[in-house]
Amino acid sequence: MAVCYFLDLSHLGRLLFVCNDWSVAARAAAHDPTWQLTKLSADEFNRYTRSNALPISLTTRQRWVHVNPMKAKQTHSAQEAKAAGFTIEQMKAAGYDSYQCNVAGFSIEELTSAGHLGPGTHTAQEAKAAGFTIEQMKAAGYDSYQCNVAGFSIEELTSAGHLGPKTHTTLEAKAAGFTIEQMKAAGYTSRQCNVFGFSIEELTSAGHLGPGTHTAQEAKAAGFTIEQMKAAGYRPYQCKVAGFSFEEASRAGFVTWGSQRRDFWFSTGMYAGRGLDQIGRTYDW
Fold first, then answer.
1. Contacts (Cβ under 8 Å, ≥6 apart) of 137
2. How confident is the model over 191-225, as pLDDT tens digits?
C-alpha cells in the first residue's frame, strides 16, 4: 500500500487491473489516493504533517478531520476546525470549549443557541438561567463557588460532588471521598491536603507539591517547570535557590523589575509580595 502514495491515478489503475486480488481498502485507494490517509491515527497524522514526511494538502487535512471528528482537537486548532466547516455542535462534541469556539469566530449568540456555555464566554448566572444543571455547570468548568453564587445550594453542590475551597472545607471534601487528585483539581493546596490526612508520599506521588509541604528544590527535582512553581505558590527567591534563572523567572511572569535589577533579584531573600513592592516604591524603581 505504501507505493500507492507515490503513484498517480493512471498508475494505480494499471496496478488494479493487474492485481485482481487487492483488498477493498487497496481498491478504494486506487480510485481515491487520499483514502488511506483518513485512516491515520491522530498521533500519526500529527507526526506526518509536522515533519512534512507526506505532502498532505489542506483539502486532505480537512477531509481527515471530517472522517475523524472526535479526534479533531488532537490535531487541529479551533480556528482550523471551523475553517474545515465544523458546526458549533461538532466543535462542542469534539471537545472545543466555548471560549475556543468564540475565538475561532462563533458568536456568543451562536454558542448560547447551541447550549455551549462556559466560564470564558458566559457567567455562571447565565448558564444557570439557560437551564444548566449542576452537573453540566461542573462539566463546563464553572467552579463550586461560581455555581454557589449563581444560586446552587451547598447541599446541591455536595450531592453532585462539586466541592471546592471556597464552598467546602478540606475536611468536608475528604469526608466526601475526594482523592488527592480530585482535591488538587478542585483547588485545595498541598498544605491543606496534608493537614487533613494525606501523607507527603501521597502528595508527591500525585504531583501535588507546594511551599507548605515540599521545598522548591524537591518540586524542581519532581519535574516542575518555573510556571508550575509559580502556580503552586513558590516565591521567586525560592525558585532562584532551586536553580531557576532570572530569565526563566521573567518569562514565567514573576515581577523581576527589569534586567537592571538582576543583581538584586539574585542577592536577596526578601523578594516576595509587598516587601519588594515597598522597596520599589521607596527607591522609585
1. 124, 127, 128, 146, 147, 150, 152, 162
2. 999 999 899 999 999 999 999 999 999 999 999 99
Which pairs with CB-CB distance under 8 Å and at least 24 residues apart come from 127-135?
128/152, 134/159, 134/160, 134/162, 135/160
**103 compared with 24, residue with greater pLDDT:** 103
